Amino acid sequence: MEGAKTALYEQHVALGAKMVPFAGYIMPIQYHSINAEHQKVRESVGMFDVSHMGEFMVKGNDAADFLNMATVNNVQKLKVHQAQYSAMLREDAGIVDDLLVYRFEDHFMVVVNAANRQKDFEHLSAQIQGDVELIDESDNFTLLAIQGRFAPGIVQSLTDMDLDQVRYYWFEEGLISGHPAIISRTGYTGEDGFELYISNENAIPVWNAILEAGKAHDIEPVGLGARDTLRLEMKFALYGNDIDETTNPIEAGLGWITKSAKGDFLGRDRILEIKEKGITRKLIGFEIDGKAIPRHGYDCHQGDDVIGHVTSGCWSPSLDRGIGMAYLAKEFTPVGTRFEIDIRGKRVGAEVEDTPFYKRPY
For residue 26, how far is the Cα from the chain centroid? Predict the structure, then answer.
């Protein structure tokens, strides 16, 4: 099996994880059952190794202006220790990647998708002007995501910091079980929790400390399979499935992070044009009839017409029904609209749903 190994590879193997190649790494897809791991996060707490993600440091006097031009959200509005969800575009407004931007006292950190790491670094490097230094630190970080209703208490037990003061999409720098960490109240599951950026040499002791601290809540490691079903229940976009360079943020439902009023950024002219003319399709969430499972690429029909295609789909463990996301022609996107999906030559009924599909009960 080819691919880079995270600092926790041996721990995953020892725990019986099924390891698979993913975005250039060998990652745990599941330890037991994807459904059981999914429900563990929804009902209690789980921990993910997501060290395959990329981390770029952006330094220099012009770093804020540079990132404001390179990304769609307004970096200038970020306060120190605040993070924001954003994206990078091509000139034609195709999405290069979605990402997180973290503001520190004297620099920024940009967290990108693993599969896009090299492409993103080259894309950003080509835009550098002024006093800007871009450094790829991805190989130096281990990233752990502790997610679920008991996650805050578990992480709190390992630090002297008051994590109640760390709001959603804010972060602090402190110690976790005595080891330096960036402690970020973010995640990709829809549950409360933290993502911890730590150095590789501290990965194993921090991983073990969290598992030990979480024993009272039967914490378990969770693989990327459940991470996918969890994010889909929230209608969180997955790059390569729901968004890519052929999609723009307006049709993808990411207009809320696309701040065209902030001033110039790469792709802004095309965004303004799209807003003026209107979109022709839209990314929607849907529920499917019966027990069928929709998959990426399946055609969507209204009568004899193909009106779009499925981008992501799964059997929802939380809702016990088939759900998915699809780009549909705009006139078919209102909630309640019925359509059909071609699943291996058979038409199966579906309906546009309000999203997120799952709403946190606490």
Answer: 19
One-letter amino acid for residue 18 of the chain: K
The CATH architecture to which 1-276 belongs is: 2-Layer Sandwich (3.30)
Closest Cα to residue 138, out of 115, 104, 155?
115
Q: How many helices (DSSP H) and strands (DSSP E) are in the chain? A: 8, 20
Judge contact between 241 and 295, C-beta under 8 A.
no
Rounded-to-10 torsion of CA 195, 196, 199, 202: -130
CA–CA distance, 249 with 5 (Å, rounded to integer): 33
pTM for the model stands at 0.97
Structure tokens at 19: 């390891």
Return the CATH number of 280-353, one of 2.40.30.110, 2.30.30.30, 3.20.20.140, 3.40.50.720.
2.40.30.110
Q: What is the Cα–Cα distance from 282 to 128, expressed in whole angstroms?
A: 33
Q: Note the residue count of the chain.
A: 362
End-to-end CA distance of the chain: 41
Residues forming CATH 2.40.30.110 domain(s) in the chain = 280-353
Is the CB of residue 321 less than 8 Å from the CB of residue 288?
Answer: yes
Residues in a beta bridge with 206? none
Q: Which two tokens stand for residue 142?
A: 């281990």
pLDDT digits (tens, 9 = 90+) for 136-192: 999 999 999 999 999 999 999 999 999 999 999 999 999 999 999 999 999 999 999
